Amino acid sequence: MSFVGHIRDLAAARRELETRRLLVVGGAPDADRSAFLDAVAREVADEAGLPVYRFRVADAGERSGEAGRTPGEAADAVVEACRGVFVVHPCVVVVDGVPAGAADAVPTGTADGSRLAGLISAFAESESFLLVGSTDAREGASALPSDGCADGWALLTRAAVHCDRGDPRAAGPLLRRAVEAHQVAGDRRGEAWAVFLYGRMCRLRGRAEEARRLLHIARERFRAVGETPGEAWACGELARLAARSGAPDPDALAEARRLHERVGDRRGAAWAHLWWTVARADEPGFPWREEFTNVQGRFHEVSDRLGTAWTLHHHALTLARTDGTDGVAGTAGTGGTGGTGGTGGTGERRREADRLFEGALALFEEADCPHGRAWTMLEYALRSPAHRFLNGEWAAEIRHVFHGIGDEAGEAWVDLAEAGPSPDGEPPYELACRYPTALLDTLGWTEAGEPLIPRAARDTQPEPRPGFPRPGDRDRLDDSGAHVRLTLLDDVPVPDVPARIALQVVPGPGHPWSTTPLPPLTARATSLGHAEIDPAHGVPAAGAEFRFTPHRPGSHRLRFTVEDPATGTVLQQVEAEIDVVPSDPGPHRPTAPAPRPSARRA
User: Fold this and answer.
1) How much is the pLDDT for 452?
2) Where is the signal peptide (predicted)?
3) How far is residue 562's CA from residue 116's CA, in Å, rounded to a whole number?
4) Helix (H, G, I), strand (E, B) or coil at 581
5) Is 170 exposed, middle or buried (0-12, 13-18, 19+ CB in 10 A)?
6) Full-model pTM
7) Using 50, 70 and 90 to split pLDDT, how confident is the model at 50?
8) Does the structure show a pLDDT above 60 at 590?
9) What does the DSSP 8-state code read for residue 391?
10) How far apart are CA 412 and CA 431, in angstroms?
């Protein structure tokens, strides 16, 4: 935004900075502009309890002792100093004195070539506030509108990279800002990609229902704007969701592959081909060796190291788990040499698997993918005990890599590999509370006591399910209690449109209310965010229904309190989070959506 002619509009500037964490002030005399930037920065910093760092482009050359430094070189020094400050920890950064013609002042970073946009994009990875003072009135007036869409695409790219690395935590803040940028720019195509990445992020976090809902929305939006490649990617992600329950859907993956090929998306077709092959690799008679080789060739054609790494990983995994067959009719035999290029004895298969694991590990390291690296280290160690770390720290090293990306589920698999099968055959709590029972039922063990971890386990980093009973609670079923059940009756809530929520009190089989009518309980509802809920209180708890009207996208928290009006006793209080997806850009203030679950049941 530009403050030329009205640089004293402090309240508007503060709102802009708090909403977008970015403020560009153009034009105006240097002294007035600097004083204005300092006033806004000081107010925001004091309220948030953050330090303030100030940089002037004009002073950079003098501080470095190079009097002949150009404005662009001086700006480079400022930007490098900023990168070392605001990316490390939250703060308020003021960069003043950006000269006229920002293309000569700040290093190039985003697709539209604006060097100011490069600074903004680098800043987007942090949680800091950035204030930029430009000596060019035109730059200040145009920076946000013209860079909004380009910045949104840069943020989406960064979010996708974090998902590829297996670190979905870092993708969330970037996606929230990307949605805002695309909504402000009116870019429906960009917003569709943002919703798709939200769905992908939810799949990675193991939130299957949320991922399915968002991916369906993304697919419909891709169709509406004619973005067929995006539609193909959404179909592929939806098909991969089925694998989480232990029942992959190869036909849907094959259809996604055909859709990619129809629009000439070779990279998308390669990924769909890989996941189709992985879904069928354990089928008797499937020619997995030929298919993995074909997939590897596809990824080489598009120079996709990450895809090649995962292909080698799954190829090695399949090879290490076979008994000598290549999955081709007529090739079999433990220690046989099958007629279609089959491997020889167990030793030869193990050596080939080792080579593939080593190749995958090297590529994951080159691609900076700790998720793939950790899983490859784990499977390599399990399949080749002789190559485990000699000092006995192999499990600790792998656990450390998982921990670096916040993958507690991966750490739990390492714990299982280290501990071996349990005497009662039950999976450990840390796995049972994260994965569906159907997937854990496919867990196997070798004669040597090494786990045969389901392939789908490495596709997600599921969080613990709320309320999942801990081991000590398994024998204490709560049949004598009464529970509050919340049901969202309207699918896909959007801003400013009422959605219905049903509340029921459900007594357990051992509760006295299970055989008698419920007493005249009441239920109160309270919105803890930017939403309205009606009626607010005094609703009979038996079959209560509320109307929830959010005023912005994102996560909304609601509190429900069930009381006995006769005694004034609060019987139970529960909270639910309902995530509202963004509608097409409208009059409401755009904010980032969060994946929408159904109302959580207490």
Assistant:
1) 92
2) none
3) 54
4) coil
5) middle
6) 0.57
7) confident
8) no
9) T
10) 6
Judge whether 36 and 13 are in contact, CB under 8 Å.
yes
Q: Under 8 Å CB-to-CB from 253, ≥6 apart: which residues?
A: 236, 239, 240, 272, 275, 276, 279
At 137 the pLDDT is: 38
Which of 80-84, 115-119, 364-368 shows the lowest mean pLDDT across its residues? 115-119
Maximum C-alpha span of the chain:
89
The residues, any chain, with a CB within 8 Å of residue 348's CB and separated by 6 or more, are none
Q: Which DSSP string corresponds to 131-186?
A: EEEES-HHHHHHHHHHHHHHHHHHHHHHHHHHHHTT-GGGHHHHHHHHHHHHHHHT
CATH of domain 10-159: 3.40.50
CA separation, residue 104 to residues 71, 99, 100 (Å): 7, 8, 8
Residues 22-41, mean pLDDT to the nearest whole number: 74
Tell me the C-alpha distance between 132 and 94, whole Å.
6
- Specify whether the CB–CB gap between 148 and 185 falls below 8 A: yes
Structure tokens at 358: 């080593």
DSSP output for 67-83: TT--HHHHHHHHHHHHH
Residue 597 · residue 487 · CB < 8 Å: no
Q: 16: closest CA among 143, 187, 188, 149? A: 143
Cα–Cα distance, 227 to 433 (Å, whole number): 38
Read off the pLDDT band of 334 (50, 70, 90): very low
CA–chain centroid gap for 247, Å, is: 23
| Backbone angles phi and psi of 23, in degrees to 5 | -140, 125
Are the C-beta atoms of 343 and 319 separated by less than 8 Å?
A: yes
Average pLDDT value for residue range 170-190: 83
Residues in CB range of 289: below 8 A, 6 or more apart: 315, 319, 326, 327, 328, 340, 341, 342
> SS3 of 547, please?
strand
CATH of domain 482-580: 2.60.40.2410
* Range name among 286-295, 319-328, 413-422, 482-491 with the lowest pLDDT average: 319-328
Phi, psi angles (nearest 5°) of residue 487: -135, 125
pLDDT at 385: 67
pLDDT for 75: 54
Contact 92, 129 (CB under 8 A): yes
Look at the block and give the residue holding tokens 């910045």. 151
The reported pLDDT for the residue numbered 246 is 59
Pairing of strands 444-445, 52-56: unpaired
If you search the block for the tokens 């000439």, which residue do you land on? Answer: 264
Q: What share of the chain is helix, strand, coil (3-state, %, to 5)?
A: 50, 15, 35
Peptide bond between residue 535 and the one before it cis (omega within 30 degrees of 0) = yes
